[in-house]
Amino acid sequence: MEKKLDHIGVAVRNIEDSIAFYTHILGGTLIDRYRNEAEGVESEIAIMDIHGDRTELLMPTNNTSSPIARFIKQKGKGVHHVAYHVGDLKEALKELEKEGIRTLEWSLRTNKHGRRLIYLNPADTGGTIIEYCDYPDE
């Protein structure tokens, strides 16, 4: 199955400063901004478009339980994950299973934009957090 880069997720400490940088320095446009307080997310998210490419800025809203807060404490701010668009998430999951690649099953969800997503287990990806996603309503 073909995979295409969908977006880069960046863990940030201050979303206002990060939006300013992506807007003024990189020439990006703020597409959307929202909070997701769901367990396992607990982040404020700003979606930036930089000349057709997307970056998600991710700031934790709960410094104790947010996975973004844990990431920043362990690794510091910066690239959190790389997301790949797959044609059909269910089929892509079957391919991963055949290859022995595990997912973080708790991360399977649909976001407010209708994007279905799941994270692959970093133990099986060389340490990189990889997201697979699709847009079933498109």
From TrEMBL:
<dbReference type="InterPro" id="IPR037523">
    <property type="entry name" value="VOC_core"/>
</dbReference>
<comment type="similarity">
    <text>Belongs to the methylmalonyl-CoA epimerase family.</text>
</comment>
<keyword id="KW-0479">Metal-binding</keyword>
<dbReference type="GO" id="GO:0046872">
    <property type="term" value="F:metal ion binding"/>
</dbReference>
<dbReference type="GO" id="GO:0004493">
    <property type="term" value="F:methylmalonyl-CoA epimerase activity"/>
</dbReference>
<dbReference type="GO" id="GO:0016829">
    <property type="term" value="F:lyase activity"/>
</dbReference>
<dbReference type="InterPro" id="IPR029068">
    <property type="entry name" value="Glyas_Bleomycin-R_OHBP_Dase"/>
</dbReference>
<dbReference type="Pfam" id="PF13669">
    <property type="entry name" value="Glyoxalase_4"/>
</dbReference>
<feature type="domain" description="VOC">
    <location>
        <begin position="4"/>
        <end position="135"/>
    </location>
</feature>
<dbReference type="InterPro" id="IPR017515">
    <property type="entry name" value="MeMalonyl-CoA_epimerase"/>
</dbReference>
<protein>
    <submittedName>
        <fullName>Lyase</fullName>
    </submittedName>
</protein>
<dbReference type="InterPro" id="IPR051785">
    <property type="entry name" value="MMCE/EMCE_epimerase"/>
</dbReference>
<dbReference type="GO" id="GO:0046491">
    <property type="term" value="P:L-methylmalonyl-CoA metabolic process"/>
</dbReference>
<keyword id="KW-0456">Lyase</keyword>
